[in-house]
Amino acid sequence: MHRAVCTTSVLGVDPAMAAAADSGYRRLLPCAGAATEEPEEEEQQLPNVSLSSRPTCKARLFELYGMNVVGVESMTGRFELTGLTGVGVFGAVYKAWDNCCGTVVAVKRLSGRGRRGRHGGGGDEPYSLVHTGVRDLAREAMSLYACRGKRGVAHLRPNGAYAEVSGSCDSFLVMDYAGGFNLKDLMKRRRKEPGGGRPFSENEVRRIMRRLLVGVNAIVEAGLLHRDIRPENVVVDDGTEDLKQKPTAAATTGKKKAQSKKRKMKYTICDLGMSVPAVDSPGYSPDGVLTSIYNAPEILLGSGQYDSRVDTWGLGCIMAELLDGPGEPRFDGETNLAIMGSVLRVIGAEGVKSWPGLKRLADEPQALVRGFRDSSRLREKFPGAREARVARRPALSQAGFDVLSGLLEGNPEKRLTAIAALHMPWFEGSGGLRRVIGSCAGTSF
Known about the structure:
Blueprint: H1 15-22, E1 61-63, E2 68-71, E3 79-87, E4 91-98, E5 103-110, H2 117-120, H3 134-146, E6 156-163, E7 171-176, E8 181-182, H4 183-192, H5 202-221, E9 224-225, E10 234-237, H6 253-262, E11 266-269, E12 276-277, H7 297-300, H8 309-324, H9 336-347, H10 350-353, H11 363-370, H12 378-381, H13 385-391, H14 398-407, H15 418-422, H16 433-437
Parallel strand pairs: 2-6
Antiparallel strand pairs: 1-2, 3-4, 4-5, 5-7, 6-7, 8-10, 9-12, 10-11
Helix pairs in contact: 5-8, 8-14
């Protein structure tokens, strides 16, 4: 299932952008102000990595409900791309140097020309990209703009959205640089280290989960649902890079090790390409979300009635993956119902059966759920201290299991929200919890 795209030409506000705003962004973002042109810059070809073919039309500026979208041509000479940091279904992310601001940034490229590269033929991308358009740019740019200033979420830089006015070429988002690899990469690296097995201790998992819960709560406060929480969409900063120094090959391994000891890992939620504004009476289209092993049961079963707890389910999947063996997802399957079967074999069907929304679904998903036993095997998969000693496996404390089981609750109405999870005993006294959730004081959960 792919997102709808639009390649309508834009002068002023594009109709596709207006449609996206009408679906909920209008109430999230301030009214559009006066547009201002960026100063013209000397044109030159970007080194190292091409931003695609040269734009054929002059740079133009148009309003996007409180933020500016700048013509792609104005990027020429400003950003020097220094390497590819990640590739997803809808875009590739590059590390780049901003000549105007003198800092390292991240540039996300949305492909406006369909599939290319290794699997699609032609182009310069290492993997195929799905065709995207102005509507896709609008969705992610406005979501990032709504999250401006929030902790744990990617930050769009001022005038950080660039689009070709014809709507048929690539578009770009320029964000603060948050790291050169993602959480999935970190899991794989750690698994290959001597000792292997389960390289993340419970304390490490607690630190990672605290940061991710803060990020999801920030998205909730911005009035959005992310809908694509997974390890690949968590960027990791290991503290080894100087963002004010133009990237070169001169950095030494010794210097990186010295820096990493002085700075803790930072985890930032990115890729809001499938995000939508949260609404009071939800009725989201099931076609708006890709099939994923990190999807919540209500999405896997085809319901459009859900809220921000679809994102905390994704965090529960990440927590289980960290504890159970990095790089080894807890659930699997090729279709939504196959993944749902994998879920029910672990968490049991009791929670999903108690969910009132199950009765409103089609017969096939209802029959699937009723065919599984009620009891959960989650504690068996993540044993306590006594059971772990017998099985010679790492133990998960009761407080940690309470968070895990609360996030992987089959009934979405009983599942933990991000702020509720942060208030669980597992996080008490774990280094600055008051500071982390201080801005949430008085929040009802």
